UniProtKB/TrEMBL annotation:
<dbReference type="InterPro" id="IPR057244">
    <property type="entry name" value="GAIN_B"/>
</dbReference>
<feature type="domain" description="G-protein coupled receptors family 2 profile 2">
    <location>
        <begin position="372"/>
        <end position="660"/>
    </location>
</feature>
<feature type="transmembrane region" description="Helical">
    <location>
        <begin position="404"/>
        <end position="430"/>
    </location>
</feature>
<feature type="transmembrane region" description="Helical">
    <location>
        <begin position="371"/>
        <end position="392"/>
    </location>
</feature>
<feature type="transmembrane region" description="Helical">
    <location>
        <begin position="501"/>
        <end position="525"/>
    </location>
</feature>
<feature type="transmembrane region" description="Helical">
    <location>
        <begin position="556"/>
        <end position="578"/>
    </location>
</feature>
<keyword id="KW-0675">Receptor</keyword>
<keyword id="KW-0812">Transmembrane</keyword>
<dbReference type="InterPro" id="IPR000832">
    <property type="entry name" value="GPCR_2_secretin-like"/>
</dbReference>
<feature type="transmembrane region" description="Helical">
    <location>
        <begin position="464"/>
        <end position="489"/>
    </location>
</feature>
<protein>
    <submittedName>
        <fullName>Putative G-protein coupled receptor 128-like</fullName>
    </submittedName>
</protein>
<keyword id="KW-1133">Transmembrane helix</keyword>
<dbReference type="Pfam" id="PF22259">
    <property type="entry name" value="GPR128_GAIN_subdomA"/>
</dbReference>
<dbReference type="InterPro" id="IPR046338">
    <property type="entry name" value="GAIN_dom_sf"/>
</dbReference>
<dbReference type="InterPro" id="IPR053986">
    <property type="entry name" value="GPR128_GAIN_subdom_B"/>
</dbReference>
<dbReference type="InterPro" id="IPR053066">
    <property type="entry name" value="ADGR_G7"/>
</dbReference>
<dbReference type="GO" id="GO:0007166">
    <property type="term" value="P:cell surface receptor signaling pathway"/>
</dbReference>
Length: 757
């Protein structure tokens, strides 16, 4: 299709923005209602609500215009409208008022949704309702599908009744109006009524085509009144379709009668309550098909196609073909079977007509910046190497073990806990049981799903890894705090820790983290829901809710972030205390005249103790910034967090080993005894002599160098050594020789020599 033709076709289905009767209405698709930009004043009951509404209608194939304008009474409320509707008073005006009051569904309360649902039910079922009243009621229901008010039992009962009212409206509208078809298309709801002759009708298909937006538009709704199989127009993509195939006996028994069919397409399943299927994220479209005028069993087969809308970071796992059972007020798989799921379309077939849906489950897809992999690999490698060297160095020195046992023991516990964390992290942090290559769809099993989120069954290994990582990190923070504490205790008791310090530190350093980890695991983990304790993405503590927002009720906050924050505060306090004591020791008068002496004295105890705790805790505190940000900021914080946390083992190596004089001495000793390559180790006596025999150069052409162009009178005599048989003969070339004299090279007899190595 030509671009210009396509553009004009699209514009035909829109009413251009226009000002009518002092009200300004935006551009609106055909069939939709347009609300004025002017709103009710702040002093009214409906402050901020539109003052007027009109509908865009297609007058001819080439002209779409706004219809009659209805102005809202800004003091009107949904409760007042409900009372007046019950009394059947001017329901046309009340229907439009209710529609305007629900035009901003995100602002509706639970009570507002309940009242609006009751109003719509009364209007749809009223015997006095005109076509315009029912259209306004359908528009109100469409807006309620976007309401985010909390569900309750009363609201669910009223909203569920709406689905029954819409089914009746769809199948009866055409027969009541004596027409072959009737259609109402709103952004979230489509009601289609069709009448077809029973004779020679093989089947009827209702189709909603894919468009540029997710909303329903009239020019993308198709009805085929006679088709034996599912048909999609060439070049078109169907978002949803339902095909009702008639039994061949219908043509023989009902040649003179008509069959009424009704179709209702819902943007989501909010009106259909369910206890069996949880849908926190998925947008499940519901497609209803109702047939009137046929005996039970004469409509042989119903086929349905649904194209689910998936977020870019999610993939389809499985789906169920269901219908809504009003006897149990829930979804049921009875009478429905699954087809294939090729080309992004989920196919179902059922042996009855009612409200159908395709319930599907998805799983999260995770992607990471390539830089994070490189940083993790390099950082963890350096940390592992640094921790191993630190452990070997301190265990191999008797001086550390005999004279500084308490400090050395605490440092070794820090190294061991962090080293075990790295080993566990590398070997098991990634959820190995997840497989993303293809959907897990079994067409021979149509089982009702319980959630739209696929949770991998817990084999136990991932939860165990998360618990171990949790324990080792808490132990690392605890031992770092103990390391800072020992520096304070030594200053109080003349550098000698209390005798009970070592057993007490073992209980605190290893026991407290183990108890805390066990409590958090027991309080949040269940076999059926392992994600209460850990994440699905990788084997670590759960942190985010279903909307990917940081959840303070998750164990990531109270079982990790909070202990890290307390450890950070504690180490900062020790840092300040140690700094002040060192300063007072160097400058008792407190006049600040010995800053350099204070700094030199402070380095020996500050860097190896409190500074480590501050650096480590600050590094892990960046994890909160990673979880709380998105986009470019998230990437920056992720890189910083990865860089600092993976290199903590290397920090310990620098602070406690690399800068120590003992380590430098060990390195020098190692270099000293490193094997050297010396000539003295080789025996050269067996190497044969290399003799240069006499070489005749007469056959070689050596170009003559003419010195005539140079004035050599001022050059002093040059003595050139010439090889002889037993030594060197000296020959003096005078600068006064003829400038035209040429030098031809060495004589043959002077070129013989013997060289011995």
């Amino acid at each position: 299709m030509d671009v210009c033709v396509l553009l004009s076709f699209i514009l035909e289905y829109f009413c251009k923005a226009k000002t009518l009767d002092e009200f300004t209405f935006p551009s609106t698709p055909v069939g939709w209602f347009s609300y004025s930009e002017e709103v009710c004043g702040k002093e009214t009951n409906n402050a901020g609500k539109p003052q007027a509404v009109t509908r865009c209608s297609l007058i001819t194939n080439e002209l779409a215009v706004f219809g009659t304008i209805h102005e809202l009474d800004c003091e009107q409320t949904l409760d007042k409208i409900l009372q007046e509707v019950i009394n059947q008073t001017n329901i046309g005006k009340l229907a439009l008022n209710a529609q305007i009051l629900t035009s901003r569904p995100e602002e509706l309360t639970t009570e507002d949704v309940t009242a609006a649902a009751q109003i719509a039910n009364k209007l749809l079922g009223s015997a006095h309702a005109t076509e315009s009243v029912r259209v306004a009621a359908v528009a109100t229901v469409s807006q309620l599908l976007n309401a985010n008010a909390l569900d309750n039992t009363e609201e669910n009962n009223d909203t569920l009744e709406l689905t029954k009212s819409l089914d009746k409206l769809s199948v009866n509208f055409s027969s009541n109006l004596k027409t072959t078809g009737f259609q109402v298309v709103q952004p979230n709801l489509v009601v289609q009524s069709v009448q077809v002759p029973a004779a020679n009708t093989q089947g009827v298909q209702f189709t909603s085509l894919t468009g540029t937006s997710g909303s329903f538009v009239a020019n993308r709704i198709r009805v085929d009144n006679n088709t034996a199989t599912v048909v999609v127009e060439n070049g078109s993509i169907a978002d949803a379709l339902i095909h009702i195939q008639f039994h061949p006996a219908v043509n023989r028994r009902q040649e003179l009668s008509d069959v009424s069919l009704g179709f209702v397409l819902y943007q989501n399943a909010r009106l259909f309550r369910s206890r069996l299927f949880r849908r926190p994220n998925a947008t499940v479209r519901v497609l209803s098909g109702t047939v009137s005028g046929l005996s039970v069993g004469e409509s042989r087969r119903v086929e349905m196609w649904i194209r689910p809308t998936l977020e870019s970071n999610k993939s389809l796992y499985d789906f169920s073909c269901v219908s809504y059972d009003y006897n149990v007020d829930d979804w049921s798989v009875a009478g429905c079977s699954k087809g294939n799921a090729s080309d992004g379309v989920l196919r179902c077939s059922c042996n009855h007509t009612t409200n159908f849906a395709v319930l599907f489950s998805v799983r999260q897809m995770y992607t990471y910046a390539e830089a994070l992999d490189w940083i993790s690999t390099v950082g963890l490698s350096l940390s592992f190497l640094g921790l191993m060297i630190t452990i070997i160095h301190h265990i191999g020195h008797k001086n550390y073990l005999e004279n500084y046992w308490t400090v050395t023991f605490t440092l070794l516990c820090i190294c061991f806990s962090l080293l075990l964390f790295i080993i566990t992290f590398v070997s098991g942090v990634v959820q190995s049981s997840r497989v993303y290559d293809k959907p897990h769809i079994k067409s021979d099993r149509n089982v009702l799903l319980d959630s739209d989120q696929r949770v991998e069954p817990d084999s136990g290994s991932c939860t165990a890894v998360a618990a171990l990582l949790h324990f080792f990190l808490l132990a690392t923070f605890m031992w770092i705090s103990l390391f800072g504490t020992i520096s304070v205790l030594q200053r109080k008791v003349n550098d000698t820790p209390p005798p009970y310090w070592t057993p007490l530190s073992v209980v605190v350093g290893w026991g407290f983290p183990a108890v805390f980890m066990a409590i958090s695991l027991g309080a949040t983990y269940t076999v059926d829901d392992p994600l209460g304790y850990r994440q699905e993405e990788f084997c670590w503590l759960a942190a985010l809710d279903t909307d990917k927002q940081f959840d303070f009720s998750k164990p990531m906050f109270w079982a990790f972030v909070l202990p890290v924050a307390l450890t950070l505060i504690y180490n900062i306090a020790i840092l300040v205390l140690v700094s002040w004591r060192k300063y007072r020791a160097v400058s008792p008068s407190g006049n600040g005249t010995s800053f350099l002496d204070w700094w030199k004295n402070l380095q020996s105890s500050l860097l190896p103790s409190s500074l480590l705790g501050v650096l480590v805790c600050l590094s892990w505190s960046l994890g909160y910034a990673v979880l709380a940000t998105t986009g470019h900021a998230h990437l920056v914080f992720s890189i910083l967090f990865c860089l600092l946390t993976t290199s903590q083992g290397f920090m310990i190596f620098i602070l406690f080993t690399a800068i120590k004089s003992e380590f430098k001495s060990d390195v020098l000793q190692f270099v000293k005894y490193f094997p050297r390559v010396t000539l003295s180790r080789f025996n050269l006596s067996n190497i044969p002599r290399v003799t240069f025999s006499r070489v005749n150069l007469s056959n070689f052409h050596i170009p003559r160098v003419t010195l005539s162009r140079f004035n050599l009178s001022n050059i002093p005599p040059v003595t050139i050594p010439r090889p002889g048989h037993m030594g060197y003969k000296l020959q003096t070339i005078s600068a006064e020789t003829s400038s035209t004299e040429t030098y031809r090279g060495l004589r043959d007899e002077d070129t013989s020599m013997t060289t011995r190595l």
